[in-house]
């Protein structure tokens, strides 16, 4: 089970996506704008962010940029979720740091499959805090870059 935060200004779409993900065994919540999600991410880190690309005020791409620049959430998995059609928008989202791209209206199976793939790709990776601790430990052993040159 993953904790998934949905960010979409269309509450009907957000609720539909949440219901599908809840039926699949995930815990979900949603917010309706970019400012709210950034405030929430200061206090709680979900396992995955399902982010609408086109919202009034702060766009999904702007939120993604802020997330990627955040020391706390820079490695948070993000799936862009949008009704915008076009390869350029998809490429921009992926280059901006999204792990996947789901077009609306979405197919239930495709949404679940994409969520599963993104979550599975994160399994076995150390959390960024654990990785930082290892790097700091290695840096204390004389390596400025924090990397180990040989296994012990």
TrEMBL record:
PROSITE patterns: RESPONSE_REGULATORY
InterPro entries per record: Bact_response_regulator, CheY-like_superfamily, Sig_transdc_resp-reg_receiver
Pfam families, sorted: Response_reg
Modification 4-aspartylphosphate, positions: 52
Transmembrane segments annotated in the record for this chain: none
Domain (Response regulatory) ranges: 3-119
CDD domains reported in the protein's UniProt record: REC
Keyword field: Phosphoprotein
Gene Ontology process terms (BP): phosphorelay signal transduction system
Record bears the keyword Translocase: no
Annotated protein name in UniProt: Response regulator
Protein's organism: Qipengyuania soli
């Amino acid at each position: 089970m993953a904790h998934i935060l949905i960010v979409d200004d269309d509450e009907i779409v957000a609720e539909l996506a949440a219901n599908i993900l809840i039926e699949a065994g995930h815990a979900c919540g949603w917010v309706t704008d970019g400012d709210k999600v950034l405030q929430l991410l200061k206090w709680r880190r979900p396992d995955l962010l399902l982010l609408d690309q086109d919202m009034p005020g702060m766009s999904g791409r702007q939120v993604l940029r802020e997330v990627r620049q955040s020391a706390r959430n820079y490695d948070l998995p993000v799936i862009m979720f949008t009704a915008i059609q076009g390869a350029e928008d998809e490429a921009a989202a992926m280059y901006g740091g999204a792990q996947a791209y789901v077009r609306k209206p979405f197919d239930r199976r495709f949404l679940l499959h994409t969520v599963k793939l993104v979550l599975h790709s994160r399994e076995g990776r150390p959390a960024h805090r654990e990785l930082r601790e290892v790097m700091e430990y290695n840096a204390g052993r004389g390596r400025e870059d924090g990397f180990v040159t040989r296994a012990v």
